[in-house]
Write a structure and sequence with these properties.
With 223 residues, the protein is mainly alpha-helical. It folds into 2 domains: 19-65, Orthogonal Bundle (Arc Repressor Mutant, subunit A), CATH 1.10.10.60; 75-222, Tetracycline Repressor, domain 2 (Orthogonal Bundle), CATH 1.10.357.10. 66% of the residues lie in helices and 4% in strands. It has helices spanning 25-39, 47-54, 58-62, 68-97, 101-115, 117-123, 135-157, 167-187, 200-222, and strands at 2-5, 8-11. A two-stranded antiparallel ribbon has the order 1-2. Strand 1 and strand 2 (8-11) form a beta hairpin. Helix 4 runs parallel beside helix 7, helix 5 (101-115) packs parallel to helix 8 and helix 8 (167-187) packs antiparallel against helix 9 (200-222).
């Protein structure tokens, strides 16, 4: 369409359908995926749906993510980075306050999971066609676990817990237990079923205290 303003011709053109431009489309796609997972599930997410939400074509999406698995891997990567920082912050604060670091990290773990369910379900769900195709994701996930593993090793070296157990196996047990509390908490199966009225944080602390009490008992017996 051409309009005339005085002697100056001004040409007005419409953007073709699907040409919507977002200043940071990659992050917008990740955010839309997080919202979709939160409202529905990881499995229900499709690139077509994400494109419809943002008003962009599938071609635009493919410039950033080659398929659904790549988008989910990006969500998980973001999640593991936040997760690692959360655990590290809990550890640093525990060291500063002189309280039990493993217990505080367990509480922080649970708090992260409940506050970031979409990330968490993607991080630990079986949603990737080929997990090894995403080295950055594997590296970040490993770094998050290393925060716990290194803490277990430090506590053993300091003599605060028994060194009778392999630190890797012990870290796996601690992780698995809190992971279970998180998943059951998300599903609502730990709310109002036992009549104890215990919060998820209290259950996490109770688990840590039981494990650590047992490890300290082993240390005393060994010495």
């Amino acid at each position: 369409m051409v309009l005339y303003a005085g002697f100056v011709a001004v040409k007005i053109t419409k953007k073709p359908k699907g040409s919507y431009h977002h200043p940071d489309l990659e992050q917008a796609l990740v955010d839309a995926a997080i919202r979709t997972i939160g409202k529905r599930s990881v499995e229900s997410l499709t690139l077509r749906d994400i494109g419809t939400q943002l008003g962009v074509s599938r071609t635009a999406i493919y410039r950033h993510f080659e398929d659904k698995s790549a988008l989910l891997a990006r969500v998980a990567l973001e999640g593991f980075r936040m997760f690692r920082l959360t655990l590290q912050a809990a550890l640093d604060e525990a060291r500063e306050r002189g309280v039990e670091p493993i217990e505080e990290m367990g509480v922080a773990y649970l708090g992260f999971a409940m506050a970031n369910e979409s990330h968490y379900k993607t991080m630990f769900g079986d949603v990737f066609e080929a997990h090894d195709c995403y080295p950055d994701l594997n590296e970040e996930g490993g770094a998050a676990f290393e925060v716990l593993l290194n803490t277990v090793k430090e506590e053993q070296q300091a003599g605060r817990i028994a060194a009778t157990q392999d630190p890797l196996r012990l870290a796996h047990v601690l992780w698995a237990a809190v992971h279970g509390i998180a998943l059951l908490g998300m599903s609502g199966r730990l709310t109002g079923t036992s009549g104890s009225g215990a919060t998820l944080e209290e259950l996490s602390r109770l688990h840590s205290q039981i494990v650590l009490t047992g490890l300290r008992t082993q240390r005393r017996r060994r010495s």
